[in-house]
């Protein structure tokens, strides 16, 4: 295949395709024979607790972790420096260059992609506006707040105008304002046709951003689908959370038409018909409860269990 | 599990070199104080003080003998420091390599760039010593300028082993072993301060295998305007260390970062 045709990938072919992907460290199987395809222009999520194999999967996509077995293609090609040329990466922990200012970080990164200087400065201005960092262009990176660093990392990941952007827990540790700002930037990117791959353990983030997602645990994919389909498949439509310390007077077996899970501080009651249960609880004096639609978090806890992960 | 493929560095090495040059430019003041301060102290303190007792050594004034030795040893220590502390900082705590590896560059390019930078820094240190030595009137001729490319090569030669160290240590403290067990003995024993011919034969043989004695053997005649003896052999030794050092460094850094 010549260089010119390799860039032509039809809009229907997947951006990433993995078959039997596997990663073993010594005796530990971190990614255990997983299959997935990521369609162009979508936001695809990897959800899972710590140690599920999400980051290792991303590292294999980048060629930073050789796969033990399986097939993996990006843009229809095997992983190589050439595929990285068309990808952007937002790592879990910021690795901005502390010796340089905001604008110098972007210039330097452009040089790694051998983007001509004039072109780079046009892109940098656009990206500084896109991430609302124009005012901070001459600031040293160590003087930036966590949210600004993250935005700069995102700007940096876009310097090569990537078709595919990989984000490893992009909003972990950030305050709500920054998270919302980042979500809106990511939505803009997707609207422009950029394919996004995202790992997260924030269910809200996955529900807002992901068109499709897989839930991983212990290196395996437990299920795959749209957030809505996953919720429908695994949990009842509605949840009523009861504060445990207020529930002493309740006889759990008497609660109408629901499945109860005890999470310690709360009782989660999953149901398709909330009305009779709500009626029952309103008639029980002192019980504090909250009624909400079921979400991905419920799916996540159902599929991955409730024990603590480190 | 090691990736023993032969390295193939491309133009990306120059981009990495440029990055380091840009950082150096920002801190040029302290860097030059170090580059000039150290040789001034050595040459004035040791050279003039000790030199007045010694007179000539190896058919040249002791100050010339010492200055030429220091050009070689300073190229060694400069590259060794850069290849250990600085490279380790970029590789592990600062995670600069991780950021670069998300671009089309590879470990091969990064380390080639780092080695070139070590060479450049060694060259800078040689320039500083030459300038100081010239002002003290101990440089014999313009032939001494040939020591600059030699200093660059010495930098390359010592960069590889230093980066190898960076790829296997868990923290900065372990560099003490490398410094005390490898660099300092070489500094003392390789003919920087006195001719190696004065040492026991066994020690001489050992020192002949180490690169610094070959570096000194190249630099000293150039500074003193004497005839070079077996220059190709000495250059070859430095080149062999360079090539093997680079290859091992690439394999070991791959093992550390590409997992």
Q: Helix and strand succession of chain A?
A: HEEEHEEHEHHHEHEHEEHEEEHEH
Approximate shape of chain A = globular
| Overall pLDDT metric of chain B | 95
Distance between the termini of chain A: 46 Å
Strand order of the largest sheet of chain B: 1-2
Mean pLDDT value of chain A: 91
Low-confidence stretches of chain B: none
Largest sheet data of chain A:
6 strands, mixed
- Unreliable stretches of chain A (pLDDT < 50, length at least 5) are 1-9
Could you estimate the helical fraction of the residues of chain A in percent? Answer: 25-40%
Q: Note the main sheet of chain B.
A: 2 strands, antiparallel
* Count of individual helical segments of chain A: 11
Shape of chain B: globular
Total number of strands of chain A: 14
Which CATH architecture of the largest domain in chain A would you pick?
3-Layer(aba) Sandwich
β-strand percent of chain A reads: 25-35%
Walk me through this protein's architecture.
The complex is a heterodimer of chains A (310) and B (259). With 310 residues, chain A is α/β, with parallel strands linked by helices. Chain A is built from eleven helices and 14 strands. Chain B has 259 residues and is mostly helical. Chain B has a two-stranded antiparallel sheet with strand order 1-2. The N and C termini of chain B lie close together (9 Å). Chain B is 75% helix and 2% strand. The chains are: A alpha/beta (310), B mainly alpha (259). At the A-B interface, helix 3 and helix 4 of A face helix 1 and helix 4 of B.
Quick recap of the structure?
Chain A has 310 residues and is of the alpha/beta class. Chain A is 33% helix and 26% strand.
Chart the SSEs and their pairings:
The complex is a heterodimer of chains A (310) and B (259).
Chain A: H1 3-6, E1 16-25, E2 28-38, E3 43-47, H2 54-62, E4 69-74, E5 77-78, H3 81-84, E6 87-90, H4 102-112, H5 117-130, H6 146-157, E7 164-168, H7 176-191, E8 195-200, H8 203-209, E9 212-217, E10 220-225, H9 227-234, E11 238-243, E12 259-262, E13 266-271, H10 274-282, E14 289-293, H11 296-304
Parallel strand pairs in A: 3-8, 3-9, 6-7, 7-8
Antiparallel strand pairs in A: 1-2, 1-4, 4-5, 9-10, 11-13, 11-14, 12-13
Chain B: H1 12-26, H2 28-54, E1 56-57, E2 60-61, H3 62-91, H4 96-101, H5 107-135, H6 147-168, H7 175-189, H8 201-209, H9 211-224, H10 231-257
Antiparallel strand pairs in B: 1-2
């Amino acid at each position: 295949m010549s260089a010119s045709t390799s860039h032509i990938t039809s809009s229907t072919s997947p951006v990433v395709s993995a078959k039997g992907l596997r990663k073993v460290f010594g005796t530990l199987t971190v990614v255990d024979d997983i299959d997935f395809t990521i369609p162009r222009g979508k936001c695809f999520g990897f959800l899972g607790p710590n140690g599920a194999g999400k980051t290792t999967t991303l590292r294999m996509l980048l060629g930073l972790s050789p796969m033990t077995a399986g097939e993996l293609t990006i843009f229809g090609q095997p992983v190589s420096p050439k595929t990285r040329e068309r990808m952007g990466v937002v790592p879990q922990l910021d690795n901005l260059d502390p010796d340089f200012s905001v604008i110098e970080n972007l210039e330097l990164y452009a040089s790694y992609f051998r983007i001509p200087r004039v072109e780079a400065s046009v892109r940098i201005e656009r990206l500084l506006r896109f991430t609302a960092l124009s005012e901070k262009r001459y600031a040293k990176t160590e003087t930036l707040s966590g949210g600004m660093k993250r935005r700069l990392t995102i700007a940096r990941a876009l310097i090569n105008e990537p078709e595919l952007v990989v984000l490893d827990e992009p909003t972990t540790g950030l305050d709500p304002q920054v998270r919302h700002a980042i979500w809106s930037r990511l939505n803009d990117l997707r609207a422009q046709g950029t394919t996004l791959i995202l790992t997260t353990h924030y269910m809200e983030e996955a529900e807002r951003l992901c068109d499709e997602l897989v839930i991983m645990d212990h290196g395996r994919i437990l299920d795959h689908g749209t957030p809505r389909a996953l919720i429908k498949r695994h949990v009842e439509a509605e949840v009523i959370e009861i504060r445990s310390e207020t529930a002493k007077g309740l006889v759990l077996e008497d609660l109408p038409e629901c499945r109860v899970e005890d999470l310690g501080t709360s009782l989660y009651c999953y149901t398709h018909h909330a009305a009779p249960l709500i009626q029952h609880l309103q008639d029980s004096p002192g019980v504090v409860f909250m009624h909400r639609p079921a979400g991905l978090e419920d799916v996540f806890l159902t599929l991955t269990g409730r024990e603590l992960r480190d | 599990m090691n990736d023993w493929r032969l390295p193939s560095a491309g133009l990306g090495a120059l981009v990495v070199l440029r990055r380091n040059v840009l950082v150096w430019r920002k801190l040029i003041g302290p860097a030059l104080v170090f580059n000039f301060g150290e040789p001034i102290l050595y040459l004035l303190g040791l050279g003039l003080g000790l030199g007045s007792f010694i007179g000539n050594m190896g058919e040249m004034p002791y100050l010339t003998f010492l200055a030429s030795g220091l050009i070689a040893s300073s190229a060694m220590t400069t590259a060794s420091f850069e290849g250990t502390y600085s490279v380790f900082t970029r590789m592990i705590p600062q995670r600069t390599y991780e950021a670069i590896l998300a671009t089309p560059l590879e470990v091969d390019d990064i380390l080639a760039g780092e080695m070139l930078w070590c060479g450049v820094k060694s060259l800078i240190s040689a320039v500083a010593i030459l300038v100081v030595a010239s002002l003290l009137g101990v440089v014999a001729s313009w032939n001494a300028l040939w020591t600059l490319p030699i200093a660059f090569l010495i930098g390359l030669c010592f960069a590889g082993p230093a980066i190898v160290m960076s790829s296997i240590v868990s923290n900065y403290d372990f560099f003490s072993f490398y410094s005390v067990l490898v660099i300092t003995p070489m500094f003392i024993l390789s003919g920087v301060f006195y001719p190696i011919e004065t040492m026991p034969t066994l020690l001489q043989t050992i020192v002949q295998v180490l690169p610094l004695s070959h570096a000194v053997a190249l630099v000293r005649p150039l500074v003193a305007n004497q005839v070079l003896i077996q220059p190709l052999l000495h250059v070859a030794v430095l080149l062999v260390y360079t090539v093997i050092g680079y290859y091992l460094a690439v394999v070991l850094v791959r093992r550390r970062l590409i997992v």
